[in-house]
Amino acid sequence: MNKPVMHKPAPLPTSDTAEYWQACNRDELLYQRCDNCSHVQFYPRRICTVCQSNDLGWHRSAQKGTIHSFTVVHRAANRAFDADVPFVLALIDLDEGFRMMTNVIGEECRTATIGRRVRVVFEQHSSGQKLPQAILEPLA
Fold it and tell me: How far is CA 132 from CA 23, 60, 61, 118, 122, in A?
Protein backbone atom coordinates (compact mmCIF):
# COMPACT_ATOMS: atom_id res chain seq x y z
CA MET A 1 0.00 0.00 0.00
CA ASN A 2 1.49 3.34 -1.06
CA LYS A 3 1.40 6.28 1.32
CA PRO A 4 -0.36 9.35 -0.06
CA VAL A 5 1.97 12.14 -1.12
CA MET A 6 1.82 14.94 1.42
CA HIS A 7 2.66 18.48 0.33
CA LYS A 8 3.97 21.10 2.72
CA PRO A 9 1.52 23.94 3.23
CA ALA A 10 2.24 27.07 1.21
CA PRO A 11 1.69 30.64 2.39
CA LEU A 12 -1.49 32.28 1.16
CA PRO A 13 -0.79 36.00 0.74
CA THR A 14 -3.55 38.42 1.70
CA SER A 15 -3.89 42.13 1.02
CA ASP A 16 -2.08 42.69 4.36
CA THR A 17 0.81 40.31 3.61
CA ALA A 18 1.28 40.43 -0.20
CA GLU A 19 4.07 43.03 -0.05
CA TYR A 20 5.89 40.95 2.57
CA TRP A 21 5.74 37.77 0.47
CA GLN A 22 6.78 39.62 -2.70
CA ALA A 23 9.84 40.93 -0.82
CA CYS A 24 10.70 37.38 0.30
CA ASN A 25 10.83 36.39 -3.37
CA ARG A 26 13.47 39.13 -3.80
CA ASP A 27 15.43 37.74 -0.79
CA GLU A 28 14.37 40.72 1.36
CA LEU A 29 12.85 40.55 4.83
CA LEU A 30 10.32 43.32 5.49
CA TYR A 31 8.78 44.40 8.79
CA GLN A 32 6.39 47.18 9.75
CA ARG A 33 6.92 50.31 11.85
CA CYS A 34 4.02 52.47 12.96
CA ASP A 35 4.38 56.06 11.72
CA ASN A 36 2.16 57.20 14.62
CA CYS A 37 3.84 55.61 17.69
CA SER A 38 7.07 54.07 16.19
CA HIS A 39 6.15 50.55 17.33
CA VAL A 40 7.95 47.83 15.32
CA GLN A 41 5.88 44.75 14.50
CA PHE A 42 6.13 41.46 12.73
CA TYR A 43 4.22 39.60 11.16
CA PRO A 44 2.43 42.06 8.83
CA ARG A 45 -0.93 43.37 9.99
CA ARG A 46 -3.43 45.98 8.91
CA ILE A 47 -3.09 48.09 12.08
CA CYS A 48 -0.51 48.80 14.77
CA THR A 49 -0.82 46.37 17.66
CA VAL A 50 -0.06 49.17 20.15
CA CYS A 51 -2.01 52.28 19.07
CA GLN A 52 -4.34 50.74 16.43
CA SER A 53 -3.20 53.26 13.80
CA ASN A 54 -3.26 52.07 10.21
CA ASP A 55 -0.33 54.37 9.43
CA LEU A 56 2.22 51.58 8.97
CA GLY A 57 5.39 51.78 6.91
CA TRP A 58 7.37 48.89 5.43
CA HIS A 59 11.07 48.68 6.28
CA ARG A 60 13.82 46.37 5.06
CA SER A 61 15.57 44.32 7.71
CA ALA A 62 19.32 43.77 7.75
CA GLN A 63 18.31 40.10 8.26
CA LYS A 64 20.52 39.55 11.30
CA GLY A 65 19.48 38.56 14.78
CA THR A 66 19.93 36.37 17.83
CA ILE A 67 18.30 33.11 18.87
CA HIS A 68 15.87 33.88 21.72
CA SER A 69 14.71 30.27 22.14
CA PHE A 70 14.66 27.08 20.08
CA THR A 71 13.61 23.46 20.05
CA VAL A 72 14.69 20.43 18.08
CA VAL A 73 11.60 18.83 16.55
CA HIS A 74 11.83 15.04 16.42
CA ARG A 75 8.19 14.35 15.57
CA ALA A 76 6.54 16.48 12.94
CA ALA A 77 3.08 17.85 13.68
CA ASN A 78 2.17 17.38 10.01
CA ARG A 79 3.10 14.27 8.00
CA ALA A 80 4.33 16.49 5.15
CA PHE A 81 7.33 17.34 7.36
CA ASP A 82 8.22 13.74 8.34
CA ALA A 83 11.24 13.68 6.01
CA ASP A 84 12.63 16.85 7.63
CA VAL A 85 12.89 15.61 11.22
CA PRO A 86 14.85 16.31 13.22
CA PHE A 87 14.78 20.05 12.52
CA VAL A 88 15.46 23.16 14.58
CA LEU A 89 12.63 25.66 15.10
CA ALA A 90 13.64 28.96 16.70
CA LEU A 91 12.39 32.31 17.90
CA ILE A 92 14.76 34.90 16.46
CA ASP A 93 15.13 38.43 17.86
CA LEU A 94 15.98 40.55 14.82
CA ASP A 95 18.26 43.54 15.32
CA GLU A 96 15.46 45.95 14.34
CA GLY A 97 13.43 44.98 17.42
CA PHE A 98 10.97 42.32 16.29
CA ARG A 99 10.79 38.58 16.86
CA MET A 100 10.01 35.93 14.28
CA MET A 101 9.69 32.15 14.33
CA THR A 102 11.54 30.21 11.66
CA ASN A 103 13.62 27.12 11.01
CA VAL A 104 17.36 27.11 11.50
CA ILE A 105 18.83 25.32 8.51
CA GLY A 106 22.27 24.25 7.34
CA GLU A 107 24.77 21.61 8.31
CA GLU A 108 25.51 23.17 11.70
CA CYS A 109 21.90 23.83 12.73
CA ARG A 110 22.06 21.25 15.53
CA THR A 111 24.71 23.40 17.27
CA ALA A 112 22.15 26.19 17.81
CA THR A 113 22.26 27.84 21.23
CA ILE A 114 20.32 30.63 22.88
CA GLY A 115 22.10 33.90 22.13
CA ARG A 116 23.76 32.60 18.94
CA ARG A 117 23.80 35.04 16.05
CA VAL A 118 21.92 34.10 12.88
CA ARG A 119 21.26 35.49 9.44
CA VAL A 120 17.96 35.21 7.56
CA VAL A 121 18.16 33.55 4.14
CA PHE A 122 15.41 32.44 1.79
CA GLU A 123 14.51 28.93 0.70
CA GLN A 124 12.37 28.08 -2.33
CA HIS A 125 9.08 26.33 -1.51
CA SER A 126 7.60 23.92 -4.06
CA SER A 127 4.81 26.48 -4.65
CA GLY A 128 7.38 28.94 -6.02
CA GLN A 129 7.21 31.17 -2.93
CA LYS A 130 10.46 31.81 -1.05
CA LEU A 131 10.34 31.33 2.73
CA PRO A 132 12.57 32.99 5.33
CA GLN A 133 14.89 30.61 7.20
CA ALA A 134 17.85 31.23 9.50
CA ILE A 135 21.43 30.05 9.30
CA LEU A 136 23.96 30.25 12.10
CA GLU A 137 26.65 32.91 11.86
CA PRO A 138 30.21 31.62 12.36
CA LEU A 139 31.45 31.79 15.95
CA ALA A 140 34.00 34.54 16.54
Answer: 10, 13, 12, 12, 5
Query: Model pTM?
Result: 0.91
Give CA–CA dist 113/66, Å, rounded: 9
Burial string for 21-40 (b: 16+ CB within 10 Å, else e) reads: bebbeeebbbbbbbeeeebb
Q: HSE (CB half, 13 Å, CA atoms) of 60?
A: 7
Q: What is the pLDDT of residue 28?
A: 98
pLDDT score of 39: 98
User: What is the radius of gyration, based on Cα positions, of the chain?
Assistant: 16
The CATH number corresponding to 62-140 among 3.40.50.150, 3.30.465.10, 2.40.50.840, 3.30.420.40 equals 2.40.50.840
Q: What is the pLDDT of residue 118?
A: 98
